[in-house]
Write a structure and sequence with these properties.
The complex is a heterotetramer, with 1 copy of chain A, 1 copy of chain B and 2 copies of chain C.
Chain A: E1 13-22, E2 25-35, E3 40-45, H1 51-58, E4 66-71, E5 74-76, H2 81-86, E6 89-92, H3 104-108, H4 122-135, H5 151-163, E7 169-173, H6 181-196, E8 200-204, H7 208-214, E9 217-222, E10 225-231, H8 237-245, E11 264-273, E12 277-285, E13 289-294, H9 300-307, E14 314-319, E15 322-324, H10 329-335, E16 337-340, H11 344-348, H12 355-360, E17 368-369, E18 372-373, H13 375-388, H14 405-417, E19 423-427, H15 435-450, E20 454-458, H16 462-468, E21 471-476, E22 479-485, H17 491-499
Parallel strand pairs in A: 3-8, 3-9, 6-7, 7-8, 13-20, 13-21, 16-19, 19-20
Antiparallel strand pairs in A: 1-2, 1-4, 4-5, 9-10, 11-12, 11-14, 14-15, 17-18, 21-22
Chain B: E1 6-13, H1 18-37, E2 41-48, H2 51-64, E3 68-71, H3 76-88, E4 92-96, E5 110-113, H4 116-130, E6 135-140, H5 145-158, E7 164-170, H6 175-188, E8 194-196, H7 200-213, E9 220-225, H8 228-236, E10 244-246, H9 251-264, E11 271-274, E12 279-280
Parallel strand pairs in B: 1-2, 1-3, 3-4, 4-5, 5-11, 6-7, 6-8, 8-9, 9-10
Antiparallel strand pairs in B: 10-12
Chain C: H1 15-39, H2 46-55, H3 57-71, H4 79-95, H5 102-129, H6 135-153, E1 158-160, H7 164-170, H8 172-175, E2 177-178, E3 181-182, H9 183-201, H10 203-213, H11 215-220, H12 225-251, E4 253-255, H13 262-272, H14 284-303, H15 312-332
Antiparallel strand pairs in C: 1-4, 2-3
Helix pairs in contact in C: 1-14, 1-15, 3-9, 3-12, 3-13, 3-14, 4-5, 4-6, 4-12, 5-6, 5-7, 5-12, 9-10, 10-12, 13-14, 14-15
Classes of the chains: A alpha/beta, B alpha/beta, C mainly alpha.
The structure holds adenosine-5'-triphosphate (2 copies) and magnesium ion (2 copies).
Residues 51-52, 94, 173, 404-405 of chain A line the site of one magnesium ion.
Amino acid sequence: MIAASNSSAVPLLDARGLSKTFGIVEVLKDISLTVRPGEVHAIIGENGAGKSTLMKILAGNHQPTRGELLIDGQPMSFSGPVDAEKHGIVLVHQEILLAPDLTVAQNIYLGRELGKGLTVDDRTMNEGAAKAIRDLGADIDPNAIVSRLSIAQRQLVQIARVLLVPHRVVIFDEPTASLTPHETEALLKVITDIRAKGVGVLYISHRLPEVKEIADRVTVLRDGRLVASHETTELEPADMARLMVGRDVAKLYPDRHAAEARETVLEVEGFDVPGYARDAAFALRKGEILGFAGLIGAGRTELMEGLVGLRTAKGNVRFNGRPVHFTDVHSSLKAGVAYLSEDRKGKGLLLTKDLRVNLTLASLGKFIRGLQIDRKREGEALDKAIRDFDIRTGTKEILAGQLSGGNQQKLLLAKMMLLDPQVVIIDEPTRGIDIGNKEQIYKFIASLAAEGRSIIVVSSEMPELIGICDRILVMRGGRIVGEVQGEHMTENEIVQLATGVNAGSGEAA
Amino acid sequence: QEGKKVTIGVSIPAADHGWTAGVVYHAERVAKLLMAEHKGLNVIVKTSADPASQANAVQDLAVQGIDALVILPTDPDQLVSAIQQVKDDGKFVALVDRAPSVNDNTIRNLYVAGNNPALGEVAGKYIAETTPEAEVVIIRGLPIPIDQQRQDGFDKGIEGSKVKVLDRQYGNWSRDDAFRVMQDYLTKYPKIDVVWCQDDDMAVGVLEAIEQAKRTDIQYVVAGAGSKDMIKRVMDGDKMIPVDVLYPPAMVATAMQLTAGSFYDQVPVSGEYILDATLVTKDNAESFYFPDSPF
Amino acid sequence: MNAAVTDTSKAPKTSKDWDMAAIAPFVALALLLVLGYFANPNFVSLANLTNVITRSAFIAIIALGATYVISSGGLDLSVGSMVAFVASLMIMFMNSGAIADPMMMLVAGMLVALALGAACGLANGLITTVGKIEPFIATLGTMGIYRGLTTWLSQGGSITLRDRELQQLYRPVYFGDVFGVPIPIIVIFVTAALAAFVLYRTRYGRHLIAVGSNEEVARYSGISVQRVRTIAYVVQGLCVAVAVLIYVPRLGSTSATTGILWELQAITAVVVGGTALRGGVGRIWGTVCGAFILEIVGNIMLLSNFVSEYLIGAIQGAIIIIAMLVQRTLMRK
Amino acid sequence: MNAAVTDTSKAPKTSKDWDMAAIAPFVALALLLVLGYFANPNFVSLANLTNVITRSAFIAIIALGATYVISSGGLDLSVGSMVAFVASLMIMFMNSGAIADPMMMLVAGMLVALALGAACGLANGLITTVGKIEPFIATLGTMGIYRGLTTWLSQGGSITLRDRELQQLYRPVYFGDVFGVPIPIIVIFVTAALAAFVLYRTRYGRHLIAVGSNEEVARYSGISVQRVRTIAYVVQGLCVAVAVLIYVPRLGSTSATTGILWELQAITAVVVGGTALRGGVGRIWGTVCGAFILEIVGNIMLLSNFVSEYLIGAIQGAIIIIAMLVQRTLMRK
Ligand SMILES: Nc1ncnc2c1ncn2[C@@H]1O[C@H](COP(=O)(O)OP(=O)(O)OP(=O)(O)O)[C@@H](O)[C@H]1O
Ligand SMILES: Nc1ncnc2c1ncn2[C@@H]1O[C@H](COP(=O)(O)OP(=O)(O)OP(=O)(O)O)[C@@H](O)[C@H]1O
Ligand SMILES: [Mg+2]
Ligand SMILES: [Mg+2]
């Protein structure tokens, strides 16, 4: 790592006139940008604006169609990510890139194992990995197999891995999308530390307050073009949102009337998901939006998966007054309970199939004419979904895996909504979604509730839970430890319940 | 008349073990001889691994325009239709070694065969006469009809004697499998007098297994076919291989020669030529020893 | 699991690319036809080509089922033994004389074969899905079982259709033709068309591809992964039975060696046809083309007289590798 | 914010699971031993068990190489033919009389075998990695090639080590023992220990697993995927050569049938040993155990008197399925 230098020095990284074309679609147009030593440069923009593509070019994963790249003032062309890494440019991918069968420590040191001669020194690497993870404020067993970690934990491992490489420019592509505030805070602290050492940081996030907090400069992309670049001091989050979306995003959360006492749709009692959740009990009313908060690993996801029959579980569940026990998603969907996974890549979408196939996969029954699938109606449904959910893509012929992260999330939402469910369980609904689209999704959730559907929102973003839910249940260690409602719906109270630490003022439930 | 254009197709099993290798060798050898002898003669030799692909091979030969077919079927019953088609087209058909359940002039002109039941019977008789109270273990070939015929022949050969069959297992006509089966026999039976393994290839594995176990109770091994190695042992008076039962792979050559003869020598050739399953002993071994053969 | 990462560094695979991948086997086939012509002009005679395609029917039809199993992410090594087993039982049933009228008996025998095929497939499917055993091992096990049972039924010998009249009645199913097109060729194309319809046009087909492409996504979308996979094995069993229906009239008998190594040939046909073994993609017409390629390679070997019969296997192996290289080169364009 | 931001009250399942999966094959083996005892008390005699384990040496050693190839995400169907090919060339070399001194000749012959094995493996590796052909097809092709060349070399017959002196010198490598332990058994364990060391303790082993687990990630980590895979095939070739080294002294000859279907047995040993075919996991000791299981199943069949020889294949198949079910049940606990 190099020593800190002032901002007038030669930029560490200087991109000039970068353009990128995929097939016939131009996703980046003439982008120029610099990273100076010791600065945090944030890149923001709507889903599909081209942020990740730009970062991948800088880190050697893609070749630009046009434009040049200067490192320390010298023109440079990377043959691949490994080459970029040699020059100290490292990227934390938006998507998880880890070998699922290896342990945390093995992944962190993959390709640069420690050891004498040909042998590897696992003990030292385990210690190093444990320390790197601790530095991020997390606690993950370095011996754990990665496929057994939650998305958030994997994201942390990925960050730890990248930070262990000698680096001069670190690019974070939505590192906090799946992190809770606690981990986010720890990560921001780490970023401050490395900035102090003169490292340049490129930082992508849809959480604008976070950007405001950490960044020195903000560059805004829209439709593959650079639309603005400012010192952070000149911008408030609301300004950023306006620059991104091209209009005012005045109010993120829709107005909602406090739900009147209506009939109970779903009633859960003494519900166990062995190993993950114990003795859960709650009720969901018609037209209600119920939030689930908790730390990573609190078992929210697993509880929901148990409810819809994705995991073995036992307990009493009454749906519309009748006892039900879902053993697979087929039965829960048929009853009218839909679950949207938080893991859109692994469990939500077929990345190697096109958008149409993905959209209708869960509700093919609706598209059958005679014996056949009616492809025309499928196409119409896709057009409608692209409109309704504002899925941004240059062409409809693209594979799901080629959509930008946020647009994948929107496609997944569209897919499950085709089922027209009575109860919708949405796990991390806005993970990786830009602010303009968040607003739309919240409106959409609210309108679902207004139609008389019941919604469960599992989220790690407390403002979002507070903004849209009628009630919030908090889980810790596999148990529902409390409920907040009305004016008690504050971050402070939720955090206390979630951590079990009484940090002062009001004790809840 | 010399110079007459004649094409003979020869369809035989692929060289998948010693005996079939011998067949391929002799077919090749005689094909060359015959073509040298008769100017206009063309002999095409094709090998096939299994009945289905042999049926294909016969079809392909027919497409090339043959006047006669010499066939040693991998599994006769499964090849009847294929052969029948050639015969129905008016071609000369010589069937070698393995006969289908219906084996008459409707399907072939000539039948040249070793005698599978006799191969078993000769071995059985020899054992019954030499060691009338022997306890015998048998290693079979593959589960196909000729193997069954040999077993039935063997049972007939020991009929009336006190020879007792301890066990029969498949050795797949493979040395390695025979070695394995023999090792297990040696574990299973504390006393074995005689091994009948009906095939010279398998005998190689059997002898190694016996030698390794250093067992002295086994008096001798009866194999069969007439490979040069085993005939040599018989000639040399090897106590473990006192005899061999002949089942000459050269029978295909006989059939080919007879077929060529039917075109060039104006001798009407038809009917059955059954070669004996001769018992090769120390006294007559010399006349069955062909050191140049691969088998 | 989060393993699946698409390589987004490459240009998007739009319909163009897919088409190339789909066409590649046909190009390889065309090249082979040219090669065959140079090996022996008889090769391109109608009689020869009809013969070759007719006899590729068994592998082609079995490979259609294998396409289902493989695109669902499975594998079936038992098909060769299953042919022997189903055919043996079918012949034994027809030999039993349970029904006097030959025509009725034939129809009954065919139905028995289909039912048996479906049952064998079901067994394979349940062992892999409910028993959760790797398909490779599960079907290797049933391969042993079906083969062993056949050996036992035939008592080491062969099982032959005895009734002459029935035989004469049945024979045309392999040897007959309709307007000059041999019946087995018709059966190939009808089966393939049916298979293509189900795979590409129906809900089940879509589900099958989803399961093979990402099991978890399928499960989370409310698809019963086990049922879909099991049905794929049943389809494979039915295809085996259809192959048996045209196999039995050809040779009229079976033995313990019937169908040995057909599983390898069927899988090869599928892969040569462009279906990847990891699942998620199924190319019905490619499979048919792959089966033709395999049979034609063998045919060319037999018709050409340059190649020592000892080397046939080696040349065949080399040709298959070269055919695949040609395909890959085409696809990368 | 301090320590506990991740809720660790439910630690993710780690080493426990692994242990169960790793132990499962050994439990299956133990059950088999008990079963064998009931089938025939002779079964547990030292002599018998020594025989059986010695015999399993070929498959076990080849399967060690297969474990490498499979955990890297590949597959090698050519190993059986490769055994025949390498062994034939080795014997032909030793028959050539190029070196007068038998001891020197033997050593030279062994080196030739190892070099040939490595070369064959390299060929497989390059065809799959550089040629980008599915391993299944690529090695099916080379399987045909190696087998064909062997048939051609042996002109369909067998190739026998002629020099009596050399034979006597070489024989103990299969039949000899050290302190009562047959040499093939020692070779199994030494090879396995070496394989385990490389796989679990070296950089290469780590990279191999990474490549099998997620190719993309390995590439991003600067690992040369092609090189790692190719080396895995070379290791497979070397293992085949080692198997040949102890195979040749046993019967002193090879033929076109040598090693037929050994590839299926080797892969089965790997899978029975707990290594998944999709790659990313490699269990060396499980593989050794899997090879023992396969050989023992056959041995029990032969030693027991209940089973008709016709049904042996069927029972073997059933036992393998049951062994896998036992494993799965254990692992799910
Ligand atoms: N390999 C590819 N082939 C075709 N189009 C692609 C490919 N990769 C990305 N795109 C397209 O490029 C555009 C920009 O995508 P990118 O991932 O850079 O967006 P992003 O700004 O990171 O969005 P998000 O906030 O949702 O992550 C999108 O329209 C996407 O569909
Ligand atoms: N397949 C699995 N096998 C074993 N453990 C698992 C598996 N999946 C997840 N876990 C563990 O279960 C715990 C809970 O998972 P997870 O983090 O998804 O819970 P959560 O409450 O939904 O949290 P969040 O939604 O914030 O990610 C974690 O400790 C995780 O490591
Ligand atoms: Mg992105
Ligand atoms: Mg979760």
